[in-house]
């Protein structure tokens, strides 16, 4: 009887040992899969954090800010070039846009008044109208964003610029820049947060994980774009 009991214990021990070995092998396989995935995800997050800095961009609240340019109330940026100014959308508009499916630009030679709709970015069922930051004549447009509209959101401060103007006067040079512009952008980022939270509640707070505008009703989208884009 004693020998039988010992045999049972030995068999049970062998079974448990084999089970532990199998579990160890499974664990090693899982770790071998998860560790590279974790490293890749970590690298992606690191790149997302470093990529804007590599392009000379900074953070102002939740949005990207580019030093060295001026900012208009309708959330466009203006960069001085010889004989003209280049215009694009700032980090607030880039944050508002869920995506960009097409971009309608003004015609070269077209004269624009300050605040007039100069460009339209289609997001599918909704669109964002971009106001001219100053009065003047359009002298160039960025055909690259017509071919690849995603550039206005992915690289709105660089390759995603919209058009260039010959300004009517020099009032554009009085628009905010530097620390003043960055503080304003930070305030606008907070205002955008407040808007989304008030319209979407918890969904608005979670919007930082992805684009929130698709969750807005058509009326709320129009209110959002009127409030921030001024067009």
Shape: globular
CATH topology of the largest domain: OB fold (Dihydrolipoamide Acetyltransferase, E2P)
Strands in their spatial order, largest beta sheet: 3-4-5-11-10-7
CATH superfamily of the largest domain: RNA polymerase II/Efflux pump adaptor protein, barrel-sandwich hybrid domain
Supply the number of structural domains. 2
Q: In percent terms, what proportion of residues is strand?
A: 15-25%
* SSE pattern, N- to C-terminal: HEEEEEHEEEEEHHEHHH
Q: How many E strands?
A: 11
Helix content: 40-55%
Global structural class: alpha+beta
What integer is the average pLDDT?
A: 83
Number of helices: 7
Indicate the radius of gyration in whole angstroms. 27 Å
Give the CA-CA distance, first to last residue: 93 Å
Can you summarize the main beta sheet? 6 strands, antiparallel
Poorly predicted sequence stretches spanning 5 or more consecutive residues: 37-49
The appropriate CATH architecture of the largest domain is: Beta Barrel
The CATH first-level class of the largest domain comes to: Mainly Beta
Written account of the structure:
With 231 residues, the protein is of the alpha+beta class. The chain has two domains: 1-54; 60-229, Beta Barrel (OB fold (Dihydrolipoamide Acetyltransferase, E2P)), CATH 2.40.50. 46% of the residues lie in helices and 20% in strands. It contains seven helices and eleven strands. It has helices at residues 2-54, 91-96, 143-147, 151-154, 178-200, 202-205, 218-229, and strands spanning 58-60, 63-65, 70-71, 76-81, 84-89, 102-104, 111-112, 117-122, 127-131, 136-141, 163-167. Strands 3-4-5-11-10-7 form a six-stranded antiparallel sheet. Strands 6-8-9 form a three-stranded antiparallel sheet. Strands 1-2 form a two-stranded antiparallel ribbon. A hairpin with a 4-residue loop joins strand 8 and strand 9. The N and C termini lie far apart (93 Å). 32% of the residues are buried. The model is unreliable at 37-49 (pLDDT under 50). Keywords: Lipoyl, Membrane, Transmembrane, Transmembrane helix. Pfam families: GCV_H. It comes from Anaeromyxobacter diazotrophicus.
